Amino acid sequence: MPNLAGKVAIVTGAGRGIGRAHALALAAAGATVIVNDLGGELSGEGHDATPAQQVVDEIRAAGGEAAANDENVADFAGAERMITQAIDDFGRLDILVNNAGILRDRMLMNMTEGEWDAVIAVHLKGHFAPTRHAAAYWRDRSKAGDDVKGRVVNTSSPSGVFGNVGQANYGAAKAGIAGLTLIAAQELQRYGVTVNCLAPNARTRMTESAFELPDDAAEFDALDPANMAPIVVALCADEAQHITGQVFHVWALRGWSAGELFAADERWGADALLAELLERFPDGVAPPGMIAGMQAAGGRSLRTR
Fold this sequence. Notes:
Elements (H helix, E strand, L loop, with lengths): L7 E4 L5 H12 L3 E5 L13 H12 L4 E4 L6 H15 L4 E3 L15 H31 L6 E6 L2 H5 L5 H21 L4 E6 L6 H6 L18 H8 L10 E2 L3 E3 L2 E2 L11 H11 L9 H7 L9
Parallel strand pairs: 1-2, 1-4, 2-3, 4-5, 5-6, 6-7
Antiparallel strand pairs: 7-8, 8-9
């Protein structure tokens, strides 16, 4: 497993499901983890600090170091307090995993303004706000001469990449997160920060409410949320410094087109996945920018001058 000892990570929406799996995996790799979760209902209503604290207790019981945070990631000031907590309590911030989300599914013609606004706020603004404050911290460190190896891992969805009936708000937010990833990767690369994105497939309370999922497999459960965590650990390793601006689904997506296939018959180990990433991308990989990307996709008439 890649060694993340000495690094400090924040994982949002980490009280359950995929976020919990990320937090546990980062802690197992040696990182100190701030477990953020508002603890609300799937719709985003309510507040309960228990889920975040339970994950903190799991990490500590396994010998790791962690702290709970129950800020609302869609609150700009709250997101800043979360970033500040990492710096004040543990002296630094190295990794930000944006994972928090809610669902308010409805057919477009019946969706209310409140249902649209709430989902866009938690997902899209809830990615922007923590990333904005973390980015400012890393920029200042870089300008001060520090060797920054910052990491942002965002969470999109197949609904945002391919679309899904009844999820206009959710899909639009998740597509926006993929776009945010590409731009943030280009802006923050100069400061030593990589920005990548997952479009995960896993069995969680969110997906179980939206899709009919197969039952747990007897031996290997392909939909276990823990299967999503190795890519996060791999991307957070120092060796992955030059892999940025990518959206990883069951297969890798470069921007909006299919890219490299990483296949295995069982859960990837973070070390094996990191080795595969470095073999596939020996010179690193980064988004080429809008003009170059459109030209590569067939927009040959576009002018670069």
